[in-house]
Amino acid sequence: MLGRSYDREVCSAARALEIAGERWSLLILRNAMFAGMTRFTDFEQGLGIAPNVLATRLEGFVAEGLMETVAAASGHAEYRLTDKGLDFKPVIIALTEWGDRWAAPDGAPIAYRHSGCEGTVGVHLQCGECGTEPSLEEVVARPTAAMALARRRRGLG
């Protein structure tokens, strides 16, 4: 059985899961990004999420710097995405694209659009060196100096 953390993993994907991988987390972020939700009650009602679970997730996002709390004119606290939180947008779009292809029997339920021209927005792989879009088979993972350093710090060789 998996534990609640990935302490032995030297992996940025595992670290991201530590922050946003719990049940409801991605949907809260999605609704903040694309449905404009900022208030606790909006998330609670819109998602049908238990208030204790929602409070825990929102507190975690604030602690990790994905959201900040601000006092609204109404006197209620609002949860607003920070730049770090907004940087998660391509992750939601990529996950949605995968879901549209493999888990949407009636087709894509929403489309991400560029508000400036209404063009379709998607996530595309592109090589930073030559500019081509490699096939999925051509994308490989290679350890970096940061991996070696982290493994040494952890006594993993």
Can you walk me through this structure?
The protein has 157 residues and is mainly α. It has helices at residues 12-20, 25-34, 40-47, 51-64, 83-86, 89-102, 145-153; strands at residues 67-71, 77-81. Strands 1-2 form a two-stranded antiparallel ribbon. The longest helix is centred in the middle third of the chain and has 14 residues, at 51-64. The model has no long low-confidence stretch (mean pLDDT 93).
- Beta percentage is 5-15%
Q: Output the radius of gyration.
A: 19 Å
Biggest sheet, strands in spatial order?
A: 1-2
Distance between the termini: 25 Å
Rounded mean pLDDT score = 93
How many beta-strand runs?
2
Structural class: mainly alpha
* Major β-sheet profile: 2 strands, antiparallel
The ordered string of helix (H) and strand (E) elements is HHHHEEHHH
Number of helices: 7
Low-pLDDT regions: none
Give the overall silhouette.
globular
Helix content: 40-55%
